[in-house]
Amino acid sequence: MTELLKLIRAYLDTVDTVLSIFKSKVGEQEEGKSWKANIPDDGAFPSEGISKFHRHGAGIWVYYKDRFLDFNFYDLNFLDLDDYHRFITIDVGFLAGFIESLDVKNERWIDYSLLKEDLNKMVEEGIVRNIEYKYYLQADLDELAKTRPDLLK
């Protein structure tokens, strides 16, 4: 599971990097709106490594440095996290797409059902926590609890 843990961390770190790029490109929060509302529906920032992006529903998919990344901006489990310094939500399908774009040679991690099985094993081991249909690294939740214990009641 150590290799999968590294891939999960790579996914989360890449989301953080991409969010930082978007924030630097679209500007700060406007009154009453998140800065994310300034992101166009479609586009690219080639000089930053983003060859293409498209907004969908509550999220966005991005081609960043030849990696495919998909994530939702908002986590209904943690609506108040807009000011938090890290992206922590792991969606099984989004993670599988990211892993596939890395050309990882492990069929278990690009198959939704098999990846979910492995994530559930990590839940049993206390490495990952499942809240509804999303997963979180327990270490990230522990870090969040230090500054926002109200969110983890």
Any overview of this molecule?
This protein has 4 helices and 6 strands, in the order αββββααββα. The model has no long low-confidence stretch (mean pLDDT 86). It has one domain (2-152). The chain is α+β, with helices and mostly antiparallel strands and 153 residues long. Helix content is 38%, strand content 20%. A 4-stranded antiparallel β-sheet has the order 1-2-3-4.
Give the structure's gist in a few sentences.
This protein is an alpha+beta fold and 153 residues long.
Features:
single chain, 153 residues, alpha+beta, 4-stranded antiparallel β-sheet, two-stranded antiparallel sheet, 4 helices, 6 strands
SSE layout and pairing:
Elements: H1 2-26, E1 42-45, E2 50-56, E3 59-64, E4 67-72, H2 92-101, H3 112-124, E5 128-131, E6 134-137, H4 138-147
Antiparallel strand pairs: 1-2, 2-3, 3-4, 5-6
Beta-strand content bin: 15-25%
What structural class results from the helix and strand content?
alpha+beta
Number of strand elements: 6
The first-to-last residue Cα distance is 28 Å
What form results from the Cα inertia axes? globular
Mean pLDDT: 86
Radius of gyration: 16 Å
Percentage of helical residues?
25-40%
Strand line-up of the largest beta sheet: 1-2-3-4
Enumerate how many helices there are, as a single number. Answer: 4
Integer tally of domains: 1
SSE run:
HEEEEHHEEH
Major β-sheet, in short?
4 strands, antiparallel
Question: What is the chains' assembly state?
Answer: single chain
Low-confidence stretches: none
